Amino acid sequence: xxxxxxxxxxxxxxxxxxxxxxxxxxxxxxxxxxxxxxxxxxxxxxxxxxxxxxxxxxxxxxxxxxxxxxxxxxxxxxxxxxxxxxxxxxxxxxxxxxxxxxxxxxxxxxxxxxxxxxxxxxxxxxxxxxxxxxxxxxxxxxxxxxxxxxxxxxxxxxxxxxxxxxxxxxxxxxxxxxxxxxxxxxxxxxxxxxxxxxxxxxxxxxxxxxxx
Length: 212
Known about the structure:
By secondary structure, the chain is an alpha+beta fold. The chain has 2 domains: 32-97; 101-210, Histidine kinase-like ATPase, C-terminal domain (Heat Shock Protein 90), CATH 3.30.565. 56% of the residues lie in helices and 18% in strands. The chain contains 6 helices and 6 strands, in the order βααααβαββαββ. It has helices at 18-64, 70-97, 100-105, 107-118, 133-150, 180-187; strands at residues 2-3, 122-125, 157-164, 167-176, 193-198, 202-210. The protein has a 6-stranded mixed β-sheet, covered by helices on one side. Strand 3 and strand 4 (167-176) form a beta hairpin. The chain is elongated, with a radius of gyration of 22 Å. Mean pLDDT is 84; it is low at 9-17.
């Protein structure tokens, strides 16, 4: 069974221009993922590095005032703790925009990290190939949402990532096929499709996403 994609919030074309409208929608979708990746890099290379440097400077300052009032040392330690907490929150936000590991290493390692974090018994089979930030981002978040819905202690899930020409194909085996519609929401603006086999509950969800 193939699920039909929903309309995304991309710019619309005029009457009689369905193909042009679809092309514009896909370009819009790719542009959204490109912007998300650039924003994550700005947070990582800009604000996060500045906060790390400030925490380090506070630590150096603390060692230079060895004879200072203990209350001052405690205040500096407190400031460092706050900076580290802010830094972690910033990294969490950046990861929700576009995961750094996905950008650096690709779908396989990034999905493995999600499975470890959630505690899901997922096995990932992915090549070292790269598929472009838009296709990888859409596939990552679609699968991350699916795994989060399954939660820890669920049945084992196998994820197989492969390329079919200019299409990224992701097979998710042993999953509740009712997650397919939610996954499609992440893929439709890129022209992605979802096929479901098996069921009515456990089966295989196959995502196909145009890629670079």
